[in-house]
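1st attempt posting a full record on here, be nice pls
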Amino acid sequence: MRFLVVGGGGREHALAWRLSEDGHEVAVAPGNAGTRLMGLAHLDVRAEDVEGLVAQARRLRPDCVVIGPEAPLALGLADALRAAGLAVFGPDRAAARIETSKAWAKAFMARHGIPTAAGRAFTDAQEAERYAASLAGPAVVKAGGLAAGKGVFVCGDAREAAAAVRAVRRLGEAGREIVIEERLEGRECSLIAVTDGRRVLPLAPARDHKRALDGDRGPNTGGMGAYSPLPDVTEAQVDAIRRRILEPAVAGLAAEGCPFRGALYAGLMLTAEGPKVLEFNARFGDPETQVLLPRLRGDFGALLAAAAHGELHRARLAWDPAWAVGVVVAAAGYPEAPRTGMPVAGLEAAAAAGALVFHAGTVLEGGRVLVRGGRVLTIVGLGPDVAAARERAYAACRAVGFEGAWYRNDIAGGTVGGPQA
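the predicted structure (as tokens):
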């Protein structure tokens, strides 16, 4: 089959890599240095250029368009592609509100009895700040819109919560709505499901590390690493999450007139009362995708096409028992103000160390790979156990380099999750 992958991050490199590994023809828009080094076809159009992407897709006529990032979903790219008669893996704009508006998502979960943290949504910053100042315990303050993973503040007391409200408002349009929630305690888990709008097929669970620094310290980021499998999440727990959270969400979206076809990501806290939703995303996670796809057995492209065509009953999933540990190598200044333009060295040595190297914030210019964004690479090690996978990933991390490169040293260092992200 022929696929068009929309996006240019580490997730999209992983999607394109896996589809190509399965023997499919792949084009990428706009891609990055990693996808260009693969020799794939590239379309010189931004992921947010809906009109340009529709025109290019009409010309290319792929069997399926796979939309990676959240921004084009929020802009209605899936709607426009479907209106042009193309099969799309990714939800329409209305269904994508489950990610693009945290206030809408909280109300949606309340309507459909989906367990989540207690919280309130505000559009008035002063009212939100007064509410935050009145809290008796820890809280989580979130930007209601899309903030590239940087609009979540985990607060220990009312003073920190009030300061977080002010920080959210400085995010501009992403901070127009503010959600303040109770802070849940437990272990975190990411569970992504492929759905055709009716059926739900969960992938293997994964766990990401959102805080910037070792020991789950520092500001929240888009994700500094991930690993899979999770020995502390059983098949019975995955089945319970499917029945209590994922299926009610998919059924609720369909009942409200916005069926969801694509990847529904549930960021969860496994509390003493059972799993509760921290957030929903309307696409594959990043960096979770980079550790899940190397473990997936079977034809990934057939799975995506089945969901896009409403035929998920034909799909089956199986998983390699190997461990996958992914470590994000970031640019100096990330997440606040990443530096760019530096050449990246050691990519061949990292591959020779037996790791998979997925590019994110890179660009290929004059035959050189240059840093283009904050999260530059995700380096994935595979092994029969977590120790072997970690060693392979970190050996490859030590092999690559650019001025100011840094990464966390404790990805998959334990089997429990950190604090709420």
